[in-house]
Predict the 3D structure of the following.
Amino acid sequence: MSETASPHARVILSATCYADAEAALHLAVLLARTAGAGLHGILVSDETILSAAAHPHARAVSFSGQAVTQVTVETMHAAFRADARLFQKRLTEAAQKAVLETSFSAIRGRMMAVLARSAEARDIIVIGFRRSIKDGDALVLVLGDRDAGHDQLAFALQLSALTRKRLIVFATPRREGEVVAILARQRGNLHEYRPYLGTANLLRELERMSPAAVIIATGQEEVPPVGALINAARCPVVLTGPAADGV
């Protein structure tokens, strides 16, 4: 990830609500500090949610499944504005504490379309999800068929040390030898190689795990659908290198 060491690169933390952003904020700060990058937050006022709220019988259910309240487009706009204010406040506080340059945008649209318009070369993209990195079991790095000697693996190992999480690396079987050799040289030898056998197999593996975050560093042609990744892993997803460039 040497290209992300440029001061012009950013870590973009994107979310459709404050809860998702807050859960991934610590990870985004660590990524920015490690990569020497700025930190940019995007609160996406999701058009799918707004369209659903336009239905005359739209209801919102709490995370506990208890409370049911009627929602309208106006109440959802108000909720997005409130989340944007809180997200920007916490982002600014965290960036100042970590001595990072920061910026913030609130944009209406669909997540991946917004990121496609907002992301630039060498950016690292973090898509927030409610599971905090502290609550997950391990970091997952998906290399696919990329060279294990690439900086992405070294960067993931550095992040693993900072978060005190073991690293699980998914790479194609022909990369197994080089990945295992690199992981074996790490202190404690707690890390693990698993074969990358395509998107469907990866999603099944993630469904059986409780990862702290999933880092996608594959080539563009190997990037799984981000929505499917989040649904399977239920944790923040990081797109970096060609995976981010292909958004």
Q: What stands out?
A: The CA atoms of residues 214 and 221 lie 18 Å apart. Residues 131-247 form a domain with the Rossmann fold fold (CATH 3.40.50.620). Confidence is low (pLDDT under 50) at residues 1-8. The two ends are 17 Å apart (CA to CA).
